[in-house]
Amino acid sequence: MADGKLVESGAFRVDRSRALDKLMRFQLPEARMYPLPWVQAAVASRASKISIVPQPAGFEFAFDGTPWSRRDLHDPYRHLFDEDPDGTKTRHREFAIGILTALRVPPQHITATFVDDGKEWVLHVKDVTTEHIQEGELKERAAPAMRLFVAANTSFAKEREFLERYAKHSPVPIEFGRARLVCAPQSPSVLEVDFESNGVSGSLNLPKWPPESSRIELVTHGVIVAEEWLRLPGVQVEGWVRNDGFRKTLSQMGVVKDAYYLQATGALSLHSARLLKDVASKVMARADDVGRALLDPDTRAHWMPWERTGLAERLGGLLQAGAPSDAQSAAVAEHSAFVGALRAAAIHR
């Protein structure tokens, strides 16, 4: 690719090398986040598996799914300058963004190996202005659709950390070092709901301690691209919502507030309101049983320690109240969380 080559898109003419350099520097806040766009490319390629193998010589990222062609990759960055109103170029754009981000590491080189028309081809990338494709040697009959390799001498611990943090909602299973990528468990909750409709899916959970607003992760093609605190019309929750129509901001870590965003927040509002009705029903159904349980002196002392006399007894009761020891106490704890959620919803309406 010649330096300064001009690319035309509609009425705009862009100095390609300068534009790519800016994209490389300002997309994604950390260079080691480069696997995240490739996860999105894999999901957009309808992959069934992502295999990541860190090696002494570099980082291998492979996935199956829709095949790639020489035409797709002879100019790997051209899709970044094309309009994409229907999202059909998502996998090509994410592929290119991943390469540009990986170049900031910086690596010795990057290769992308794929099969087209029964032959293996390798895209070699040295820097933002230097790449070429050459024929390789096809050794695997069942070769993955894409195998990327970032030649760098490092532990790749940061890459794994970013994958665990941002790709935990990937619909495609991810193997890292021959083992399934394990993400941190979610916070304890007392009620959960999963939903999927009209291209929007997600999961909401009611925490044990009801928040004043909802913490929501916005996901597209399996990767968290934003986190927002929203005041929903029902109970306040924690969770995530996925819409593959989300348009990302230039930094790749934000979402444009367009029709796709409104569609997603509309789904959140709907299910938050439904959860409020569900919580109210559970409170009404369990009120008598919980009330009778609190008539028992031991249970009452466990959950209402402020009625005791003496500071030591009060402190002891508070410590006990944090750890229910039987099914009855667990039911009271859950009921308390439901009542707290209703109270928060009433106060902040």
**What is the structural class?**
alpha+beta
User: What strand line-up does the widest sheet have?
Assistant: 7-6-5-8-4-3-9-10
Low-confidence stretches: 1-13, 313-324
* Secondary-structure element order, N to C: EEHHEEHHEEEEHEEEEEEEHHHH
Query: What is the CA-based Rg, rounded?
Result: 26 Å
- For CATH, the homologous superfamily of the largest domain is named as Histidine kinase-like ATPase, C-terminal domain
In CATH's first tier, which class of the largest domain applies?
Answer: Alpha Beta
Number of domains: 2
Quick one: overall form?
A: elongated
As for the CATH topology of the largest domain, it is Heat Shock Protein 90
* CATH architecture heading of the largest domain: 2-Layer Sandwich
Quaternary structure: single chain
Distance between the termini: 58 Å
Number of helices: 9
Percentage of β-strand residues: 25-35%
Mean pLDDT: 86
Q: State the helicity in percent bands.
A: 25-40%
Structure, explained:
With 349 residues, the protein is of the alpha+beta class. It folds into 2 domains: 6-180, Heat Shock Protein 90 (2-Layer Sandwich); 185-349, no CATH class. Helix content is 35%, strand content 26%. It has 9 helices and 15 strands. It has an 8-stranded mixed beta sheet, with helices on one face. A hairpin with a 2-residue loop joins strand 3 (50-55) and strand 4. Helix 2 packs antiparallel against helix 4 and helix 6 (259-293) packs across helix 9. The longest helix has 35 residues, at 259-293.
